[in-house]
UniProtKB/TrEMBL annotation:
Its main location: mitochondrion. It is found in: Mitochondrion. One of its GO terms (cellular component) is mitochondrion. The keyword Transit peptide applies. This is Cytochrome c oxidase assembly protein.
Length: 86
């Protein structure tokens, strides 16, 4: 028969091995979840960037339309001496 010490050593080693396997499994799941959150965060940043670019493009278009509707005078016309009758 096996001695009591060898049974305790076998049980301790088995418990250590099983707990190591369980720890590694949960650690991998946590890392996978963290990586997935990174992907989600990147996608959100890309979405925000696209929205900002669309807003910028719209503002550029509106600015161009506004400039077409405006009558632009040269600033030199304002400085020129007015016609004075003597």
């Amino acid at each position: 028969m096996a001695s009591r010490g060898s049974k305790i050593a076998l049980a301790g080693t088995s418990l250590f091995a099983v707990s190591t396997i369980i720890f590694v499994h949960f650690q991998q799941q946590a890392e996978k979840a963290a990586m997935h959150q990174g992907v989600i965060r990147d996608m959100e940043q890309q979405r925000i960037k696209r929205e900002r670019q669309l807003d910028f493009d719209l503002q550029k278009q509106l600015e161009a339309e506004y400039k077409q509707e405006q009558t632009v005078r040269s600033s030199l016309e304002d400085v020129a001496a007015p016609d004075v009758k003597r």
